[in-house]
Write a structure and sequence with these properties.
Length: about 375
Amino acid sequence: MSRDLYEILKNISAATHRGGAFSSEVLASVITTLPSGPLTTIETGCGKSTIVFSNISKRHYVFAYDDRRLDNSSVLMVQTSPDFVSESTKFIYGPTQKTLRSYTFEDGEYFDVVLLDGPHGYPFPDFEYALLYERLREGSVLIIDDIHIPSIGNMFDTLRVDRMYDEVGVFSTTGVLRRTGVSGVPSDGDHWYEQQYNVSQFPLSMHKYQVDRSFKAGKALHFDNRQALDRYCGRGLEMGPSGGCIQTTDISATLRFDPSTNSDGWRDDLSTVVLNIEYKSIYEDASVGATITLGASSQALPFHDKFKTAQFKFSRPREERMIVTFLHPNAIPEHNRGNKRYEFRRLGLFIKSVAIELLSEVPKSSSHSWGAGLWRK
């Protein structure tokens, strides 16, 4: 690393912005893996790496959200830095999911370095990669940041064993791969069986997809163990921090049940589903607008400051599988509580138990298409 580049990293070491920032130590390590000579580079996202690439690239593309009107702007942090070289850098503003797809690169333009650090939610990292990987030539470097995020880590795990790449290393939460001279899976066909990740993992056990969710009518199901969580919980639920219950961790969470029509209590002539749910609300604000849904009908999910059993009645769904959905549209993310147990969770309810019965009565009507009323114990 040149002395000038070392000084730049030292100068920007304390720089921060709203999108988070590479540490100068990680950047210094990553830089040592890059090809030599004048580089053509591209990144999604914007930050310290942009300043560095502006100094080592003859041409650097930055696909980033324009946050210059926001506090702690990533773009302004870069553009106002005395170490930033604007002449070598081109900004393309907007959501990269859209701008990468619509941007027209020069015919035959390849990149010596591609840094993926744009939107992190699936499928957008994969989408960015799909639009750019064919512009990596032999010896080029692919940098994937934030591989500790599962959606990013899954992509890195797939690529690190692909014949198209040699794994250079992992620096903190940044993975670096170098393009080999070997062709990968063709882009004009389906050759999944030639992809090393699939070869090494095949066949995938189907056990986790074939879960027994059957249950007995009228019997309370207590969520005081991991087995109940794994068996009956769909998305947005995990064990509560102190055990003895489960908690919703997203604005939408589901319980899934498969009643047997051949067992006692599930006769075909029964038309009303009764849910007895013992729960406690986590935050009153998150309970604003909260609902519970079964089949095509929804109803309000009241705020409870203590564990209490509420009874909900619904028309029996047309399908036998019962999917109970808890929706908390106003739940906000919780960060840095103690040991970060709640980081990124959107908390709504603690749920201790659920009991389900079928009756012949017709539920009271409501404003929803399949009407439902609300009763409490």
